[in-house]
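Troubleshooting: if your tokenizer reports a length mismatch, compare your output against this known-good record of 169 residues.
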Amino acid sequence: MRRTFTLTYLVMVVAQMIFTNYFHFSPLCMVTILPMMVLCIPTRINTVWAMVIAFATGLAVDFLAEGTLGLNALSIVPVAYARKWLIGIIFGTEPFEHKENLSTRKYGFARVSFAMIIVTTLFLAIYITADCAGTRPLWFIASKLGISLAASYLVSAPLVNLLSYDDRR
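Known-good structure output:
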């Protein structure tokens, strides 16, 4: 049976809500797969629609899991905005010319991982800065960014193949 991107994306949104609600390891660790999900939105979808999808996803996670409305939505929209530029730098113009999805099979796990680390860092930097909003010291913000980046990457790396499938399978 062929998977659809939309169904897989919705299941991942539910998984993000579960991570947000039930996996609080410490105040220094936040697990997120939202940046990886936005990075893997098919390249045939333009930047404006990717930003709308990202905003709706962030707002849904904020409303149904987080409790503080707007933090995920605020943090994920710049990731969707930078997605086309980042894909162009790391993967070239080929994914957009051929309307291909990003896949680890075609572009390699190292390049996809590098892109995931960049978008996750962007997301977490905005999220943590907005969340702390001058109430936490710099060492806390830097520690939370590093620990959350490592935890989010370890969770996102195995899941990237679910959204970034190769059409030629």
